[in-house]
Design goal:
Structural class: alpha/beta
Order of helices and strands: HEHEEEEHEHHEHHHE
Largest sheet: 8 strands, mixed
Number of helices: 8
Radius of gyration: 17 Å
CATH superfamily: Vaccinia Virus protein VP39
CATH architecture: 3-Layer(aba) Sandwich
Strand order of the largest sheet: 3-4-2-1-5-6-8-7
């Protein structure tokens, strides 16, 4: 992981909201049934599991064995049993056999790694031939504030501080991950990375918003018709297949 992974997120040891994690995991399960009704999900890999709570929520919802890794996972949170397997590892070089997982979950992690292309290649390597990857990250083109409906238990002052920092990076022309900003990737940037590696890259940004931000979905639909969605959608989400 690069230096900017230490600025924001689980590496900062922020408390995670278990109820939000469970709700989002349930939404994801329903979304996957909707978009890929024939897809079968077996063992799950969580790329960048933070402190492990996200992996725990997925195990409860999907009822499958879950393996999670994170370079910043606290040693006290390492777990090895038949339901949950959490250990410290670098996403650039995973100690995992090829074709090991039918479902990979990578939620707001790619913007924190030093070499996203290498990570995408490594995730492809451990994905089974008929498997699928769910991946999400901040939308670098967004004008909307971040950390609303977040998994993290952060107060309003921290949300203001994080967003003020993002807008400062934008104003100064340094709104990029490599400068330490929580920027993410635009759709064009991500497609440039993913399309040479994956046979199918399925955008599900609208679907994710429909499930997770139902109160505001009508507003998002209007902005999409006005072709303003790329400025207002806070994050981008995809399903990847090889």
């Amino acid at each position: 992981m690069s230096k900017f992974n230490k600025i924001i997120g689980y590496a900062e040891n922020v408390e995670v909201d278990d109820s939000v994690l469970l709700k989002k995991s349930n939404f994801l399960k329903e979304l996957l049934k909707d978009v890929l009704p024939e897809q079968k999900f077996g063992n799950i890999f969580v790329a960048g599991c933070g402190n492990g709570k996200e992996a725990t929520a997925l195990q409860r919802v999907f009822k499958q064995q879950v393996t999670g890794v994170d370079i910043n996972l606290p040693k006290s949170n390492v777990v090895r049993d038949d339901k949950l397997n959490l250990f410290i590892a670098d996403l650039n070089n995973l100690p995992i056999d090829d074709n090991s997982f039918s479902f990979i979950y990578c939620y707001h992690v790619l913007e924190h790694v030093e070499n996203p292309l290498l990570v995408l290649q490594e995730l492809k390597r451990i994905l089974s031939p008929n498997g699928v990857i769910f991946i999400g990250f901040p939308n670098r083109n967004r004008l909307t504030p971040s950390y609303l409906n977040s998994n993290l238990k952060i107060g309003i002052l921290k949300i203001i501080n994080y967003n003020a920092r993002d807008y400062w990076y934008k104003i100064t022309g340094r709104f990029k991950n490599e400068y330490g900003a929580h920027a993410g990737f635009s759709e064009k940037e991500f497609l440039r990375l993913a399309l040479p590696i994956y046979r199918k890259v399925i955008p599900i940004r609208s679907k994710w918003v429909e499930y997770n931000y139902s109160k505001y979905y009508k507003i998002f639909k209007i902005t999409k018709r006005l072709r303003l969605d790329d400025l207002l959608y806070p994050s981008n989400y995809y399903l990847l297949k090889i």
